[in-house]
Amino acid sequence: MKIGVLSLQGAVAEHIRMLEEAGATAVAVKKVEELEDLDGIVLPGGESTTISKLMHKYGFTEALRQFGQAGKPIFGTCAGAILLAKRIHGQDDVHLGLMNVKVERNAFGRQKDSFEVELPIAGVAADYPAVFIRAPYIMEVGETGQVLAKYEEKIVAAREGHYLAAAFHPELTEDARMHKYFVDMVKEYRG
Ligand code: GLN
């Protein structure tokens, strides 16, 4: 099983390390052709508008839409979750628009630019160390989706079929359980 990490911006090496710890073969993806033999992909955090521009420039927008529509699992973390969302609060345009969630960018305010909390995440852990950095939150999850975690009443992790979104950065901890959850999802949807 091979899982890619979109390598346009963000903590790519950290995601690769965690995916391997979770039992997958993981590779950095810089060209659209590299999507072909992947079973799933992670969209890392960073700055969603910047990543989106780079995705357009290198032909990833359409290719990733097809990847998702073909039923291949996609895990968006932080900015990656914004890229996946079908709706973004306060703006008309979206990026990939694949996952039926509505997100709001920079949702935790200035004084909480970055912080870490232990959260229960359904199906993942009772005490997951979640690192938030200028994080978005998920305002709404569509009917076919499932809320996995909340922090201060705000949804911070959700799943819809083969799409997984987290407002935090699971690659910036030593805890591979969130990546393991995604690796299991990829196994489930493979073949
Ligand atoms: N605030 C960023 C955005 O809107 C996301 C932050 C992150 O990925 N750490 O794209």
Q: Any overview of this molecule?
A:
Helix content is 26%, strand content 35%. With 191 residues, it is α/β, with parallel strands linked by helices. The strands form 3 sheets. It has a 7-stranded mixed beta sheet with strand order 2-1-3-4-12-11-10. The longest helix has 13 residues, at 177-189. The mean pLDDT is 96. The structure holds glutamine. Glutamine binds next to helix 4.
Q: Summed up, what is this model?
A:
With 191 residues, the protein is an alpha/beta fold.
| Percentage of residues assigned to helices | 25-40%
Which oligomeric form is depicted?
A: single chain
The beta-strand count equals: 12
Low-confidence parts, pLDDT < 50 over ≥5 residues? none
Instruction: Please tell me the overall pLDDT.
Output: 96
Ligand species: glutamine
- Global morphology: globular
The major β-sheet equals: 7 strands, mixed
How many H/I helical runs?
Answer: 5
Q: Largest sheet, order of strands side by side?
A: 2-1-3-4-12-11-10
Measured between the Cα atoms of the first and last residue, the distance is 11 Å
As a whole number of angstroms, the C-alpha radius of gyration is 15 Å
Beta content comes to 35-45%
Tell me the series of helices and strands, N- to C-terminal.
Answer: EHEEHHEHEEEEEEEEH
**Helical/strand content category:** alpha/beta
